Amino acid sequence: MTKKQPKSKNSRYYIVSNAKTIFDNFYKANKTRYETLSDFYEEVGEYCGISPSTVGQMRLNGLAPSYIAGLKVAEFLGVEPTDIWRIVELDDYVERPRCIVEGCDRVGTTKGLCMRHVYISKEINEGYRVSDHEFKK
Fold first, then answer.
1. What is the three-state SS of the chain?
2. Cβ-based neighbours of 66, under 8 Å, separated by 6 or more
3. Which residue, among 83, 136, 77, 66, has the nearest Cα to 108 in the 3D structure?
4. What sign results for the dihedral spanned by CA atoms 51, 53, 57, 60?
5. Tens digits of per-residue pLDDT, 32-84?
6. 1, 21, 75, 85: which sits with the fewest CB atoms below 10 Å from its CB?
7. Would you tell me the crossing angle of helices 19-29 and 52-61 to the nearest 10 degrees?
8. What would the pLDDT profile of 16-26 be if each residue is shown by its tens digit?
């Protein structure tokens, strides 16, 4: 089983891939249909509309395909997509702090403001007239 860690630091989910086991079991059960593993990749790729190398990356590296390709691969293999890929929530995920402006639900920066309000506060400090904002204390 391959775990694909989230790309961004604040992502609370990651993908667990069981693709290698599922692909290998299907290939072994249907070995008489394919001379080589490359022939198998080729047929899966043709059926799903993806390249054979993408199929190989799914099997070996736990590559998570697009939604449509994932459905087609699962259909070809005769399993549910959730048998191949599962989305798992991180146990140690920490919610990012929110903007300190009253009523704003955007993610705040290290100074407590979201990027929108950072720019507004810069405009206020530079003397521009911007609508009043109530900041939380």
1. CEEECCCCCCCCEEEEECHHHHHHHHHHHCHHHCCCHHHHHHHHHHHHCCCHHHHHHHHHHCCCCCHHHHHHHHHHHCCCHHHHEEEEECCCCCCCCECCECCCCCECCCCCCCHHHHHHHHHHHCCCCCCCCCECC
2. none
3. 136
4. positive
5. 999 999 999 999 999 999 999 999 999 998 788 899 999 999 999 999 999 99
6. 1
7. 120
8. 899 999 999 99
Amino acid, single-letter form, for residue 66: S
Measured between alpha carbons, how far is 47 from 68 in angstroms, rounded to an integer?
12
Per-residue pLDDT, averaged over 5-30, amounts to: 82
Burial track 77-104 (b if 16+ CB lie within 10 A, e otherwise)? beeebeebbeeeeeeeeeeeeebebeeb
Edge-to-edge strands, sheet with 13-17: 2-4, 13-17, 85-89
The C-alpha atoms of residue 10 and residue 47 are separated, in whole angstroms, by 36
Burial class of residue 57, CB neighbours in 10 A (0-12, 13-18, 19+)? middle
